[in-house]
Every structure is written in C-alpha cells, then in structure tokens.
Amino acid sequence: MKTFYILFILLIIGIIGAGCTANESSEQYEINHAGTGSDVATHVADTIKYEVQKTEEEWRSILTDDEYDILRDRGTELPYVNEYYNSKKEGIYYCGACGQPLFSSEHKYSSGTGWPSYWKPIKPSAVGEREDNSFFMTRTEIVCSRCGSHIGHVFDDGPEPTGLRYCMNSAALDFVEMDLSNTDTQNLSNLDKNKTK
Questions:
Q1: Chain centre distance of CA 163
Q2: Residue 52 domain flag
Q3: Closest CA to 32 of 132, 165, 119, 111
C-alpha cells in the first residue's frame, strides 16, 4: 500500500509539472524568437550572451526566493493559486528579472489551465524559445530575450489568430496597470529592476 501512495504522489507531481512549466536539465536546446520561424540556432546554455548579464549572487540579491526558483532555476508555480492567472486588469506584464515588456493584457485569455495565458507576446523579439526535454516529453520553453530568464512554455492549443498558448508563471512577471488605449505597446521602456529585494 505504501508503494501505491508513493507512485500516486510521483504521478501527481509529474502531471503538475507537465501542465505548464518544469525544471530543465538539458544542456543543449534550440533558440528561436517567437513567431519568426527563422533564426533557429543550437547553443550550449553556458555560451548564450544576453543583454542583461548578472552573477547568480546578483540575481539572488534582486529576486525573491520564489522569483529566483522560477526565473533562474526554471521552476514552476502551482496552478490556480498564483497572482495573475485570473486577473482581468488592463496593463503590461514585464519580465520579473530584467523588466523587459513581455505581454499585454490585450492578448491574455482564460485557458482553463490555472496559469496566466496569452495568445502572443507583446512583440516577437521579446521572448526566445528553448527546447525542453524534461519530464519525459518535449516542450517549448519561453525565456526573456533580454536576460534569458525562464517565463513558462508555449503550446499549439491556443485561440486564433495565432493558435498559440503562452502559459506563463505569475512569479516570473511584474504587472503594471495602465490604460492601453493611449499606449504605444511596441515602444515601452524597461522597468528598473536593479533594486535589491
């Protein structure tokens, strides 16, 4: 009976991790700017150079423990109990690590997964893609193109016009409420993320 409970718990953990995001152990993956379909190149994780470069000590000084787990260790948060999955507020979602604008509330929708979901990023160059082979499956991880931090995963079961579901972690995002009717979302400034926690 004890073995049954252990297997059951492992199955539940695997299902939760597979639902949206998970830790990645792969050293090699493909990187592609979302939506372009070109510019695909294979890289080794340690050789990628992003505009924002920090040591792990520096990341730990500016991120909370939960943010660090998601953004830098490629962790995941639980569905339905995270900050933005059910938010209907108008505004912009920024990278929680470097402050780059990533998603607009105009592209957010209720996917029923328990994580905030969008049918496209604010612009294709805002995010990058990496192949994620964790949990015995292949998925496409989404990272911030400015700092390489893990944001979530993208799936091909989203609504039109893209058919994509960008399933993100709330802890990887900072939200700024704003009226988007008079906002040029293609030319937003980055948030200042150089403060310590």
A1: 18
A2: yes
A3: 132
CATH number at residue 132: 2.170.150.20
95 is catalytic: no
Count the helix, strand and coil residues of the chain and give each as a percent rounded to the nearest 5: 25, 25, 50
How large is the C-alpha radius of gyration of the chain? 17
Catalytic site residue from 95, 144, 147, 167:
167
Structure-model confidence comparison of residues 81 and 135, the more confident one: 81
Is the model's pLDDT at 8 over the cut of 60?
no
Residue 193 falls inside a structural domain:
no
Indicate whether this model's pTM tops 0.85: no
- Go through the chain and tell me how many residues it has: 197
For the CA atoms of 102, 106, 111, 117, the dihedral, rounded to the nearest 10 degrees, stands at 10
Domain span at 16: 2-187
**Lowest mean per-residue pLDDT among 5-9, 62-66, 84-88, 138-142:** 5-9
From the number of C-beta atoms within 10 Å of its C-beta (0-12, 13-18, 19+), residue 178 rates as middle
Which residue has better confidence, 5 or 188? 188
Domain total for the chain?
Answer: 1
Residue 100 CA from chain centroid, whole number: 12
Mean of pLDDT values over 155-173: 97
Instruction: Answer whether residue 195 is part of any domain.
Output: no
- The residues, any chain, with a CB within 8 Å of residue 186's CB and separated by 6 or more, are 122, 123
